[in-house]
Amino acid sequence: SMRILCFGDSNTWGLNPLNASRHPKRWTRVLAALRPEDEIIEEGLNGRTVNSPDHKNPERHGMTALPMVMQSHAPLDQVVIMLGTNEFKRHFGKCANQIALGIGEMIKYIQNPANWAHQAPPQILVVSPIVVGRGLINHPEFLYQEIDEYGIMQSEYLANILERICDQYGVAFLDAKTVAKPSNIDFVHMDEENHHALGQAIAKKIALGV
What we know:
Helix content is 37%, strand content 13%. The protein has helices at residues 10-13, 27-34, 62-72, 96-111, 149-169, 192-208; strands at 3-8, 39-44, 78-82, 123-128, 172-175. The chain is an alpha/beta fold. The chain has a five-stranded parallel sheet, with helices on both faces.
């Protein structure tokens, strides 16, 4: 049996775009149902970034949180990271390349044996998040949205760059946009059906061990 840490943002926490409640059947729960022997540790936080400081919400800085979260849940066999979407917000002004490099820093931290005195470093699966839906542009509230057209474009590029970084570090990679998409309610968060599809794809990836 394995201890699997799922580290992500609102699409890991399970934010329901209908009413901002928490999906009972979020992908981490789907994964847990498919892998009943394993312990699935849910560490999703709404608004979490990779490494951009959010001055109103400093607890959202992913790279700062990662060491504490990993050490509090040690020992771990596997870490699933799905982050990046919040950095597409215009006030962070990040391009896909900068976001991917930030995830590279997370990989380096996890792979560093010096951080794991009494265990081998955990395996890693990096999941490139679903894209931000282009329907957002035609949304009546688009002008007030935090993500603009540039951000939407970067969300479409991220997987290509992230896959190269994962190859460099020898870690498993899954492009979530190949299996799931955002809802047409807010073009950012997944409905139950897409959580289900993503949970299945992640379970399959972990079972393959690649």
